[in-house]
Amino acid sequence: MSQFQDIIAYFEDSGLAESIRENDTLFPSIESVHVIAICLVVGSILVLDLRLLGLASIHRPVSRLAGAILPVTWSAFAIAATSGFLLFISNATKYLENGYFVAKICLICAAGVNMLIFHGISARDLSQWEKEPRPPLRARLAGAVSILLWIAVVACGRWIGFTMQVL
Amino acid sequence: MEAALTAFSKWLSATSLSHAIQTAGWIIPTLQTIHILCVAIVFSSAVLVDLRLFQLFERDEPLREVARRFLPAIWPVLLVLLATGGLLIIGEPRRSLVNPTFYLKMTLLLVAILLTAGLQRSIASAPVAWEKDRSRRMAGKALATVSILVWCGILFAGRWIAYTQAG
Known about the structure:
The complex is a heterodimer. Chain A has helices spanning 2-12, 15-22, 26-52, 62-90, 92-97, 99-122, 126-129, 137-163. Chain A is mostly helical. The longest helix of chain A has 29 residues, at 62-90. Chain B has one domain (2-164). In chain B, helix 7 (100-125) runs antiparallel to helix 9 (134-164). Chain B is elongated.
């Protein structure tokens, strides 16, 4: 545990973290990039989730749509994670004390687990049903869970702003 | 003009609706969460079609089909954005109505609406030209660049409203 605290302290005490903390325009600018990236992550994942639910893009085979949309999602996620990390280290200790921040990280991990379960188990026989307008229940479930988790991620993100008193 | 807006903001914040929004602590973060989720949908829809114009997304499907799948969703969601945005203004009038960043956001939004509506109509009426005609393809890429920049500008300005409000 203390090793974890050492790592956190290392980043929080770094010159980079200090400039984000002290500079008036740096934090809001990184935050804006973070919001743009998150919007693209959530919006693009929603496209795939709605396909899995059989509610949109129903004429597109699931693997084709996934192949087209996931590079967009992952690129945006990389930007969201990087900008999020920069915001985090500017006040790491306070963020870790914030329940909504911890919840947000856990929910993102849960969304990752949901994705792994889908790709590893539920979509093993993808080729057999991917052209059907309405995928099987396990795929629809994965889509529904994903939508709910990402809504919760955004809600927690917004609530962090109302429960952190740093600026 | 500014005096009139200040007076209007003062009147608005004294209304019972404004009072209700201000006093229940959960209303503003909830409205903001819905607002951001809707921004995610509108932003991603526009950007995905822009990426298609760059031949970076769903290349194996005609542009007309991609536009038909993503662009129509923008308009009803935009109404939800106007509703949640309107309620947020009623809750905290001074935060936006006497804030230049808010007017920048609205100006950019107007440009984005005209751009997107124009693109949607044009692709629907001349789908082949957008794919085959060389100069039209170039124009499409230029338009896509402007569109992405304007939408990012809207999100940037949206986040900066919080940092530029009058004290």
